[in-house]
């Protein structure tokens, strides 16, 4: 039985339908990330699960309990907000204890839980401080601690790292992941940051326009994006996508581009059966290209392409190349990029099985 399931959820605000029959389920211990651009409906979905919003129709289950009509406090959830939502007048300890105030626990049990969370999150030396005397990362740890002491079945996070600077974000990402690896709670986590999604999730639901575009493990959505939206959204730098047509040449399947460039798709693992003349888009990830192969590489498509520009970012470099009236970005080692000049022609190879074809 899934731990959290959304069953045919419809949510309307006035006349505007934001979610229109959404289905999604995750297992116990999963770390589900709801990922998508601003306005796609991910916070709405999280708030429906939390009980902060009511569904227009549909059912929300946690384990075997139908929680659709339950009060937020009766759902067995704990939530960490983007704004931390700490009480400014309470100390760290007071904030942690507040998470338990509605639960009428014996004092010894409450003490033990607060101690456990403060040890786990290294808050013990800070227990007497007020939130205004803490750094952003420390405040976020208090907010997480306040959620953990509840021993909730499901932990909800709403963009918890977006108010932190880049370095702290990386650190907190690791801490949250470590926490999940240790405690294995079921997590539903909202973000528009694909690095957070790829590094922390066991499952990602990619949303756009109130719909789930793809649901799967980080590897699945990265390696096998189901549609052009997912292909363009996941990956930084983004997947190269070039429009062309499917054509059969001498009995072999090919992708043909407007300038006549062709890719022989004989080694491509087709999942659908395009017809001669069908419009297709061909996707190639910048990091899958091979530069400097000494000759033909088995299983690869070879091109000789003219360099447009070289962009170096320090640890990494991107080379843009003319390709089929368009351009391709290829990721390269900085040393290799340093030797590359605009205007020269370079041999590049791409593993045919790693092409992504979209109709
Ligand atoms: P963001 O990353 O910007 O927070 P999101 O994916 O979380 O975006 P939601 O906040 O769920 O998106 O909003 C989804 C859509 O629903 C948006 O078009 C938004 O304008 C609309 N919406 C959200 N809350 C309300 C509301 N209370 N009344 C009317 N429309 C709303």
Describe this structure as you would to a colleague.
This protein has nine helices and 20 strands. The strands form four sheets. A six-stranded mixed sheet has the order 6-7-8-3-9-10, sandwiched between helices. It has a five-stranded antiparallel sheet with strand order 13-12-11-14-20. A five-stranded antiparallel sheet has the order 15-19-16-17-18. Helix 2 runs parallel beside helix 4 and helix 3 runs antiparallel to helix 4. The longest helix has 18 residues. The structure holds adenosine-5'-triphosphate. Adenosine-5'-triphosphate binds next to strand 2 and helix 1.
Structure ligands: adenosine-5'-triphosphate
Terminal residue distance: 35 Å
* Rg calculated over all Cα atoms: 25 Å
Alpha-beta content class: alpha+beta
The CATH architecture designation of the largest domain is 3-Layer(aba) Sandwich
Order of helices and strands: EEEHEEEHHHEHEHEEHHEEEEEEEEHEE
**In percent, how much strand structure appears in the residues?**
25-35%
CATH topology of the largest domain: Rossmann fold
Overall mean pLDDT: 92
Broad CATH class of the largest domain:
Alpha Beta
The main pleated sheet reads as: 6 strands, mixed
In total, how many beta strands? 20
- The 3D shape can be described as elongated
Q: How many domains make up the 3D coordinates?
A: 2
User: Order of strands side by side in the largest beta sheet?
Assistant: 6-7-8-3-9-10
Low-confidence runs (pLDDT<50, min 5 residues)? Answer: none
| CATH homology group of the largest domain | P-loop containing nucleotide triphosphate hydrolases
* Total helical segments: 9
EC number: 3.6.3.20
Keywords: ATP-binding, Cell membrane, Hydrolase, Membrane, Nucleotide-binding, Translocase, Transport
Pfam families: ABC_tran, OB_MalK
GO molecular function: ABC-type transporter activity; ATP binding; ATP hydrolysis activity
């Amino acid at each position: 039985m899934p731990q959290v399931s959304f069953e045919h959820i419809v949510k309307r605000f006035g006349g505007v339908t934001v979610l229109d029959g959404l289905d999604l389920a995750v297992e116990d211990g999963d770390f589900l990330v709801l990922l998508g651009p601003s306005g796609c409906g991910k916070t709405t979905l999280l708030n429906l699960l939390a009980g902060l919003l009511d569904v227009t129709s549909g059912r929300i289950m946690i384990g075997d309990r139908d929680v659709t009509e339950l009060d937020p406090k009766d759902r067995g959830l704990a939530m960490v907000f983007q704004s931390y939502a700490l009480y400014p007048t309470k100390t760290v300890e007071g904030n942690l204890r507040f998470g338990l105030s509605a639960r009428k626990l014996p004092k010894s049990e409450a003490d033990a839980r607060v101690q456990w969370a403060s040890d786990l999150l290294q808050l013990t030396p800070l227990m007497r401080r007020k939130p205004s005397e803490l750094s952003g990362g420390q405040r976020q740890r208090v907010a997480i601690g306040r959620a953990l002491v509840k021993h909730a079945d499901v932990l909800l996070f709403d963009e918890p790292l977006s108010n932190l600077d880049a370095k702290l974000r990386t650190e907190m990402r690791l801490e949250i992941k470590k926490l999940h690896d240790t405690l294995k709670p079921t997590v539903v986590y909202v973000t528009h940051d694909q690095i957070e999604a790829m590094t922390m999730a066991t499952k990602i639901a990619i949303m756009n326009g109130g719909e789930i575009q793809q649901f799967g493990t980080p590897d699945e959505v990265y390696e096998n994006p189901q549609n052009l939206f997912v292909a363009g959204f996941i990956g930084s730098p983004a997947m190269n996508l070039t429009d062309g047509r499917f054509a059969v040449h001498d009995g072999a399947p090919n992708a043909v581009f407007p300038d006549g460039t062709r890719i022989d798709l004989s080694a491509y693992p087709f999942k659908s059966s395009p017809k001669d003349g069908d419009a297709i888009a061909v996707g190639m990830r910048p990091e899958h290209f091979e530069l400097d192969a000494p000759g033909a590489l088995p299983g690869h498509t070879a091109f000789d392409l003219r360099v447009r520009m070289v962009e170096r970012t320090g640890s990494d470099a991107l080379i843009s190349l003319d390709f089929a009236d368009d351009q391709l970005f290829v990721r390269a080692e900085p040393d290799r990029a340093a030797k590359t000049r605009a205007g020269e022609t370079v041999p590049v190879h791409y593993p045919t099985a790693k092409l992504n074809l979209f109709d």
